[in-house]
Amino acid sequence: MTGSTAWAHPRASTHRLFVRQRTMIPHMRENVTRRSTMTQSTSMPLMNAGYVQMMARYNAEMNCRTFAAAERLSDEDRREQRGAFWESIHGTLCHLLWGDQMWMSRFDGWAKPSVALKDSSHLIWSFDELREVRSKTDAGISQWAARVSDDWLQEHQSWFSVSVGREMRSPRVILVAHFFNHQTHHRGQAHAMITAAGEGTGDTDLFLLV
Fold it and tell me: What per-residue confidence (pLDDT) applies to 206?
């Protein structure tokens, strides 16, 4: 053989590899177990009653700003088809209200929306009425949030989903996280359309508004 690399018998290399694997496996198993435990323990949202109250305040403030900006647009601008999932500013704001009403019917016994999901963008025709119902809804959400307890959040919620067509069951912390995430998601769409139409809401960052 030439060069500086020494030759080693294949069996010797295999033996060293086997010994190395045997010494590493317990540690690898421990790390895998630790990662699995971490995944299980952190898969649930870190949420308490204070978080719910904070998000309710943020929701109310952002809806107030969003509707104030939308009000400065013409009704034609609010109803213009802009390529969003719920088509227009007005349609998106209607769907957002629909979602809040539906989840509050499950969380707090509210009346369900008067239309099905597929018609949620037409929930309320008049913008003035939509703004009034939005304001009352946000006040109701804030009142509910003030009553939410940590124990309530740790329980499971069961309901029948018409959209899915079956009985559903999920931890409330997941559902409440979805509730606020749904608001932020569609309000972001409305914000983008309002901005494109030439109006603005001002600051939107949570830490500046609560």
Answer: 85
For 180, counting Cβ atoms within 10 Å of its Cβ (0-12 exposed, 13-18 middle, 19+ buried), the class is buried
Domain hosting 134: range is: 49-209
| Model pLDDT for residues 53-81, shown as the tens digit of each residue | 999 999 999 999 999 999 999 999 999 99
pLDDT score at 200 = 85
CB-CB contact of 160 with 49 (8 Å): no
User: Residue-wise over 118-127: b if at least 16 C-beta within 10 A, else e?
Assistant: eebbebbeeb
Q: pTM for the complete prediction?
A: 0.76
Cα separations in angstroms, 100 against 5, 33, 56, 111? 71, 39, 11, 11
Query: What is the pLDDT confidence band of residue 46, given thresholds at 50, 70 and 90?
Result: confident
Residue 2 lies inside a defined structural domain of this protein: no
What pLDDT score was predicted for residue 49? 97
Distance CA 62, CA 39 (A): 33
- Rounded Cα distance, 99 and 93, in Å: 10
Q: Does residue 78 contact residue 85 with C-beta atoms inside 8 Å? A: no
Nearest-angstrom CA–CA distance, 22 and 12: 15
How many domains does the chain contain in total? 2
Per DSSP, 144 falls in state H
